[in-house]
From TrEMBL:
The keyword Flavoprotein does not apply. It comes from Shinella pollutisoli. Belongs to the ABC transporter superfamily. One of its GO terms (molecular function) is ATP binding. Residues 5-238 form the ABC transporter domain. This is ABC transporter ATP-binding protein.
Length: 239
């Protein structure tokens, strides 16, 4: 298996705060990899480093065999990495359809954009019903779907999801989990999933890493981690 994403021993600092210390993560083509950990462990910072929004002071990040540390955020999107940020950051006063089209801003293939939008509406029928509505009037779960749909409109090879289940009701969390699986299995998009909902993250992923205060504390197959004593105590609240 060749690594699609390879993060090697990166350090990230915010002034004096050492947010990440020697973090290494590997994601193979076709995988869903979860990154779990408590508040402030460095999960979002890891995603920000991949997208070019936080600069590692040491270590290296490669995508599809080529280094991407040092590239601008838009250059990284052009390579095939899209992020769904924590809190969704949709455009509340724009329609659902225009929000989705924003994800295709780097593309010039009009026919491809139109057919991807159609496919997206098959995946998210609720968004089709509401495509002319201002996105800010949607429920939290629907807004999360807009954010995921917008990222997919860039036709990424790697999708970065930052806490997609945050603030959502259990039924909607199950729906998001289904979407993650189908995007991975049907569209062949690899996914790096950051979650505080460790149970959901371990259920939808192949492998996982647990971050604790800026370091990788544990890693393994998600099935193994679901039954790991330490993970059950620290991250699943069992035992
Ligand atoms: P959360 O789930 O709360 O977002 P996280 O695991 O994603 O947590 P990060 O947001 O990556 O954690 O934060 C890692 C560390 O870096 C924390 O100690 C945090 O306080 C600090 N930090 C994050 N962003 C900044 C910033 N812009 N300036 C200074 N410190 C920051």
């Amino acid at each position: 298996m060749s690594a699609l994403l390879s993060i090697e021993a990166i350090d990230v600092r915010y002034d004096k705060v050492r947010a990440l210390n020697g973090v290494s993560i590997r994601l193979d083509k076709g995988e869903v990899v979860a990154l779990i950990g408590a508040n402030g462990a460095g999960k979002s910072t890891t995603l920000r480093a991949i997208c070019g929004l936080a600069r590692p002071v040491a270590g290296q990040i490669s995508f599809d065999g080529a280094p991407i540390s040092g590239l601008r955020a838009d250059q990284i999107v052009a390579r095939g990495i899209s992020m769904v940020p924590e809190g969704r950051h949709i455009y509340p006063f724009m329609t659902v359809k225009d929000n989705l089209l924003m994800g295709a801003f780097l593309r010039r293939d009009k026919a491809g954009i139109a057919s991807d939008l159609e496919r997206l509406f098959v995946r998210f029928p609720r968004l089709k019903e509401r495509m002319g509505q201002q996105a800010g009037t949607l429920s939290g779960g629907e807004q999360q779907m807009v954010a995921i749909g917008r990222a997919l409109m860039a036709r990424p090879r790697l999708l970065l999801l930052d806490e997609p289940s945050l603030g959502l009701a259990p039924q909607m969390i199950r729906e998001i989990a289904r979407v993650i699986k189908s995007v991975n299995q049907e569209d062949g998009v690899s996914i790096l999933l950051v979650e505080q909902n460790s149970r959901m993250a371990l259920k939808v992923s192949n492998r996982a890493y647990a971050l604790a205060t800026g370091r990788i504390a544990l890693e393994g197959s998600s099935a193994d981690l679901l039954t790991n004593e330490e993970i059950r105590k620290l991250y699943l609240g069992i035992g």
